[in-house]
Design goal:
The chain is an alpha/beta fold. It has two domains: 250 residues, TIM Barrel; 71 residues, Four Helix Bundle (Hemerythrin (Met), subunit A) (Up-down Bundle), CATH 1.20.120. Helix content is 44%, strand content 13%. The chain is built from 17 helices and eight strands. It is globular.
C-alpha cells in the first residue's frame, strides 16, 4: 500500500454527531489524532442560506483535515450552501446527509428519507459539485429505509449518485426505520449488515467506500481495511472512549506519528481552554467533550464527576481540570 493511501484522512474518521462534534469536541479529538478526518455537526442548507447559521461554520485550522456535513434536498439551496462554506474555510470535503432518520430531518425532507429518492440525491450532488471550488462532495447514507430491500436499493442508489459525480460514500450498515423508531433506536435496533457494505466495494471497486455503524475498536477498523474497504467511520465509540479509538490511530491506521496519552491531550487542551475562557466562554463547553478521556481506567468516575459538578460554575477555570486530575489520581493510587 502506498504512503499516499495510508495517510488518506478518510481511512479513519469520526462521524458527524448532533450536539457532540462541535468545534470544541473536534479540537479535543485532534489532540489525540493528527490524521483522522473529523466532521462537523450537520448544518442544514436552509439555515446557512436563509438563516443566521454561519457561526456554525466557525472552526480553527488546527482541526484540519475537517469535513463539513450539510443537510438539505433542494439542489439550488445546497449549491449556495457549498459556495458559502467554501468561503469560510479549507474543508477537506463537503458531505450530504442521506442517513439521519429524526422526525425534524424528515419534516425538512432530507436525511434518510432521501434513500427513497436517488434521482433527487443525484441532482443535489451534481449541483453541489458544480458549486464547489475545491472540497470533494461526498455522501453518507444508510443501506435502505423501511421496507426497502437493501440488496436491491443500495446498489441502485450508489450507481445513480456516483454517476452524478460522487466518488466517495460513507455507509451506515443499518436500515433506518422512518416511523416507529427514535434516532437512538435507529442507531441500535436495525441489524448491522457489514457483508452488504463489503459487497458494495466489490460491485463498485472504483468508489471509495467507508463503513460506519457499531464499530468500537481499532482492531475492528484494521480488519475492515484489510478486507478491502477504504475507510472506517467511528461514531459514539470515538466520543465515549476517545483514547481507545483515537490515541493509537495515527501509528496503526495511518502509519505515521506516535501514540498519544491522556496527559498529552490534556496538556494540549490547556492553552485552548485558556483562550476560550479569555474570550468569555465557559469551561463546560469544552470539558463536556472530555468526560470519556479515562473511560475504563481507574478513577474515570471521579474524573467525570468533578468535571460535571464543577465545570458548569460561572467562574470555573483550569483549576477544575487540575482538581479532577488530582482526585482521580488519588483514587487510582
Amino acid at each position: 500500500m502506498t504512503s499516499e493511501l495510508r495517510q488518506k484522512p478518510s481511512r479513519l474518521s469520526v462521524a458527524p454527531m448532533m450536539d457532540w462534534t462541535d468545534r470544541h469536541c473536534r479540537r479535543f479529538h485532534r489532540a489525540l489524532s493528527r490524521h483522522a478526518l473529523l466532521y462537523t455537526e450537520m448544518i442544514t442548507a436552509p439555515a446557512l442560506v436563509k438563516g443566521d447559521a454561519r457561526h456554525l461554520l466557525r472552526h480553527d485550522t488546527t482541526e484540519y483535515p475537517l469535513a463539513l456535513q450539510l443537510g438539505g434536498s433542494d439542489p439550488a439551496e445546497l449549491a449556495e450552501a457549498v459556495r458559502i462554506a467554501c468561503g469560510e474555510g479549507d474543508f477537506y470535503e463537503i458531505n450530504l446527509n442521506v442517513g439521519c432518520p429524526s422526525d425534524r430531518v424528515q419534516s425538512g425532507f432530507f436525511g434518510a428519507v432521501l434513500m427513497e429518492r436517488p434521482g433527487l440525491v443525484a441532482e443535489c450532488v451534481a449541483a453541489m459539485i458544480a458549486a464547489s471550488d475545491g472540497p470533494e462532495i461526498t455522501v453518507k447514507c444508510r443501506i435502505g429505509v423501511d421496507n426497502q430491500v437493501p440488496e436491491e436499493v443500495l446498489p441502485d442508489f450508489l450507481s445513480r449518485v456516483s454517476a452524478a459525480g460522487v466518488g466517495r460514500f460513507a455507509i451506515h450498515a443499518r436500515k433506518a426505520w422512518l416511523q416507529g423508531l427514535s434516532p437512538k433506536e435507529n442507531r441500535e435496533i436495525p441489524p448491522l449488515d457489514y457483508d452488504l457494505v463489503r459487497a458494495m466495494k466489490g460491485i463498485f471497486p472504483a468508489l471509495d467506500v467507508s463503513i460506519n455503524g457499531g464499530i468500537g475498536t481499532l482492531n475492528e477498523a484494521e480488519a475492515f481495511l484489510e478486507q478491502g474497504l477504504d475507510g472506517v467511520m467511528f461514531g459514539r465509540a470515538a466520543y465515549h472512549d476517545p483514547m481507545t479509538v483515537l490515541s493509537q490511530a495515527d501509528r496503526r491506521i495511518f502509519k505515521s506519528g506516535e501514540d498519544r496519552t491522556a496527559m498529552d491531550a490534556i496538556d494540549e487542551m490547556r492553552p485552548y481552554i485558556a483562550a476560550h475562557l479569555a474570550e468569555g466562554g465557559k469551561l463546560a463547553q469544552v470539558t463536556r467533550h472530555m468526560l470519556g478521556l479515562f473511560a475504563g481506567r481507574p478513577g474515570a468516575r471521579i474524573w467525570r464527576r468533578v468535571l460535571s459538578e464543577h465545570g458548569h460554575r460561572q467562574d470555573a477555570g483550569l483549576e477544575v481540570l487540575d482538581l479532577a486530575l488530582s482526585e482521580m489520581q488519588a483514587r487510582a493510587a
